[in-house]
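Reagents: none. Just compute today. Helix-turn-helix domain-containing protein.
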Amino acid sequence: MNKCIALLLFFIGSINAASAKYDSFNIDSELAFAEISTSSRGLDRADQLVSNVENDEEKIQDHLLLAEKHKITGAIDSSIFYAERATEIAKSIFHISWQAYSDLFLASTYRELGLHSFASKHLKNAEKLNEHQKEDPEYHFLKTRITQEKIAHAFSQNRYDAGMKFFEDCLRQCALVPASDKRSRALAAKNDYLLGNYYLHLGNLLEADSTFSSALKLLGENNDNLKPYLYVARAKVALDDQQLDSAQHQLLLAEPYLKKFGANGLKSSYLDAYASYYWQKNEFRKARLYERELGLVKETMTEHATYVYDELFYKLDKSTDSLSSQNQVILIVNLTLVAVILILFLQLFIFRKKENTHTTKSIKSEHPFEAEYLRSSEVLRAKAILSSNSNNRDNPSSAAHTTSDPVTNLDAQTTNAMLTPIKEVQRVEHSEKSELPISEETENRLLDLLEAQEEKHFYLRKNMTRADIAGVLGTNQRYISYIIRKHRGMDYYTYLQSCRINYILKKFKQEPQLLDYKMTKLASLAGFSDNSKFSTAFKAITGTTPSAYVQSIKLKLSSTLPN
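Predicted 3D structure written out:
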């Protein structure tokens, strides 16, 4: 039955399993994903990885690589399509990290299209998902990117002061990204780019240009796609400062990137800067040409946004319905399998319960003397209490002696009477001859060994099983049960508990300071693994709880102290 359950669990795991994170495809795709955002080399690598896709996680990475590729080359509609598909696949396999990356990518893309409501929805979702993986190594990097996107989102709506409220948190998260991470410098450069735009908005041209220059230094020789945006930003600073030669120089530095990448956002900023440049140079014809070209780019961006509304969402709804149907099938299969497992567990529980009941009945029928022993111990306890009270009334000197030594008195009444000492019942014989084939010589030898172990207090070892003591004595468990039943008059478990309780009661007499110990400590001293088992065994043997027993000793001790 256990094998069946294991097979079913394995089957469920097979349905939902994703491939390991650290295979060669993942390493290559992460490099390509990083290179797409830093250089044109990643574009070729993205195409090379498409043919190697095998599982769902690889499909997600492949779709995001293609989405980034199409975005950089200006094909925004295809970029959104691949990113949305990556999101849906990530949801279907419950991969939080890739869902967050996909949502962040879509938030950025929708913002650039001016679709702020959609951008805000995906940005909030990316942040929520990332908060569920705080222990993930990517958490701080992704948190920084999300915060940067929050700032950019606010700036795009001319809410500069609102955006700067996130800047301190952005710097704090960026500092937590390890310096060994190659992406850390790009993150810091993006922070400078955002801060420079804020200074430019305020008209603080000196600080703006200094911050943009700092960002370029951080990027160094890396062919990062942030560079052309920094060049255009510095050109705008120079134009505002009426430094036309410097402005043209920065625009010329940005020009090669426009030939490699066709991003409309970059084109729009570039053309706007050049139009402003020629207006200031009073070259009106060229200024109008750049403004006309700028209008065409903005018209293209509007067409992309319209296409997203009218066409792409319709296709994504159909694909979403298909994935939803697949998810429903998987959910139904999983629920069915879970129900089967629960039924099997219930059957196993009922079977074991019946088996335990049958075993208990068999033990009682085979060894009725054990129950009789427990009943007789209660009778002995009651007789001991009555006898001690009678002796105190008939013998005042004995009573005075008892009062002078309350611990000895309590031990005499409880340890000697309530707990029949183990060695006093050593020779309890069964009415019937045991069927176990054991010689008298072996029996005596094992009894001597057991008594030697009792003197060493073997029972104080926690979780001391019958197999453990059998190993110590060099025999088997059946012989151990036979020796203890015949010479101690009880089963192994009752014998073990009796030894432990008898030990702690004697310790109370020898070391009265134990009365101030916590119950947990006393339980541990007696060999019990937890306080609950100690209390249960103590009450079964003495008729009272450990705490009540200790309190009674303390009361008797206090009553003997002089006023």
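The chain has 26 helices and no strands.
Action item: order primers for follow-up constructs.
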